[in-house]
Amino acid sequence: MKSKKLQGHMAVMTANIIFGFGVPVTALLLKEWVSPMVYMLTRCVGAAAIFWLISLFLPSEHVERRDLVVICCGGLLGFVISQTLAAWALVFTSPVYFSIIASLTPVATMLMAALFIGERINFTRSIAVILATAGALLMIFTHWHGGTGRHDLLGISFGMLSLITWAFYLLITRQVSARYSAVTQMKWIFLASSIAVLPIAWGELDTQKLYSAAWQWDGVAEMAFIVVFATVAGYVAIPFAMRYIRATSVSIYTNLQPIVASVVAILIHQDILTWDKPVALILVLLSAWLVTRTER
Q: Within 10 A of 246 (CB to CB), how many other CB atoms are there?
């Protein structure tokens, strides 16, 4: 069992490193190639096709109707709604600020676990909430009158809503994740997501640069990275990890994302290093460490 737990930790760690790279790559795609909804449609359809193809070579799993509803509804919440909000957040704010907001996921998961499944919040966890809130407010007030993005306050708000829906997804699917393989879950999640997004994004498809005569290989490569790695590989790793470790523990690894995303974004000149970024990051990471300590 210890080896399975280790595999779970390694899987979720790898997924969040990939997600960290995916933040600046997504920002590039949204800036040059696609709208947020066409970006989501490409991810959904591409991932659905890959997962259903993989499932043909694996043993078939029967999914109970009740569990299928949870899987599909959880996927709509944790992927379609959460990732659409994330895409809009990256339209308005920088990858660094979005990634720091994503680091609040362990705290959001803890609060929602207390609200919906009755987990107790002790003194240490209360301090963690205060520190995380302070880090978020620092970014908001520092850039109230404008920052590195088009509208940082609006982008940060979308980012907060994105992480809340992701935390809720972790909680409502934690039991179902233990009963079915990651591929079985993901093929249904992305099929449902494709059906939900297609009517909304279809009208925009022929106006997107990536799907016109002006397409270039760098745009295709960026989109392929998002579909294959930041969607298929990442979303296989999360339910696999949840079979062996707790939802709060899974959410803690989100703190790898701002470190990876911030370094990459600054290196490729998507953002600049200002004093509030490392201070906010330290406060948020410290809050996550306190949550981790209580988890242990």
A: 16
Residues in Cβ contact with 74 at an 8 Å cutoff, skipping those fewer than 6 apart: 169, 172, 173, 176, 189
Largest CA distance in the chain: 59
pLDDT band at 206 (very low <50, low <70, confident <90, very high): confident
What the block records as the tokens of 88 is: 């809009």
Question: Which of 144, 82, 90 is closest to 108 using CA atoms?
Answer: 82
| Confidence band, pLDDT 50/70/90 cuts, at residue 119 | low
For 59, phi then psi, to 5°, come to: -60, 140
Q: Could you tell me if 164 and 110 are in contact, meaning their C-beta atoms sit under 8 angstroms apart? A: no
Do the Cβ atoms of 51 and 187 come closer than 8 Å?
yes
pTM comes to: 0.78
Q: Is the dihedral of CA 53, 58, 60, 64 positive or negative?
A: negative
